[in-house]
Specification:
By secondary structure, the protein is mainly alpha-helical. The protein has two domains: about 240 residues, no CATH class; about 110 residues, 3-Layer(aba) Sandwich (abc type-2 transporter like fold). The chain is built from 14 helices and four strands. The protein has a four-stranded mixed sheet. Helix 3 links the parallel strand 1 and strand 2. Helix 7 packs antiparallel against helix 9. It is elongated and about 100 Å long. The relative contact order is 0.11.
Amino acid sequence: MRLALTALIIKEFQQTFRDKRMVGVLVVVPLLQLVVLGYSVNLDVNHVPTLVADEDRSVQSRELVAGLVAGDAFDQVGELATGQAALGAFEHGLASIVIVVPKGFGERVKRGAPAAVQVLVDGSDSNRAIVAQNAATAYMLGRAVALAQERIAQVARQRGFVPQIRPLRVEPRLLYNPALDSAIFFVPGVAATLLLIVTLIVTAMGLAREKESGTLEQVLVTPLTPTTLILGKTLPYAAIGLVDLGLVLAAGSWLFGVPLRGPLVVVFAAGLLYLLATLGLGLFLAAVVRNQQQALMAAFFVLLPGMLLSGFVTPIENMPTWLQPVTALNPVRHFVEVLRAVLLKGASFSDLTSQFVALAGIGITLFGAASYTLRRRLG
């Protein structure tokens, strides 16, 4: 059996690398997808197009607007005469946020009276709207505190004493990703989804192609057992998947600055269990379909839920309560958690026990079910 398995593995490698297009699909395409997705998937919100409707035109209102657009968060793209023109600006896509400073703002600030500023936000892009709204609110609150402290100091000087103002200071510490670079968060998820795409589609399409062309029946008349055939068809792709994982990690660290804080042996151990699940899923699809077209359609039917329910883009906690337990059956979710924990936080085996148990259980179940189904179809 060992000699037969070795011969079958060598045959699969030769057949795979003889086809230059297949080499591109297995090696080059994942790297290209990583580069494209890593640069395109970006949730950093800055340089938000901002319109200003300064109805007051006082020194205080100009100082307020100048301070708001001084950083990288907001870019002033124009001025409106009144706040009523804001809706038209939103409809034409001229801005994502409008700052309306009403008449009398400067006089109220001088008197120390409450002064209001209206912030209109285009909510069609909810992520940008939330971040822009929070940034504008934080700036306005900081400005209000500064004005209040200045007013208190002024009154104190008029009354002849020095105030002891000790404002509360909040100094947040951002761990693991201090710059809040979204690429560092997304690239590990991209690596997991790329492995799913490559191994699932190649395995399902490869066996489906052999069934469709009749070469599988020719192999079955040889003394090979179904177990040897299954191992010979999957082990080469498992090896290629581990190579892809190493290439993607290297490219992610080099191009996007993804840190490699934890032991890589943990990543590759989890990768083996993850590949057991994805290859098993590909075998199962190949066992139940009749041709390559059906295999491709079935693979895409599985890929989309696998990515959406992995926490790759949206947190699991934000999903409906009834859907969150379903994500526990998704191997992509557990591998994404392993990648982010090891690469960003330096986690070890002991920190990821639940993820390894889940990957092992899902992988063994999927591969076992696929092997059983394929044996029955081949027998």
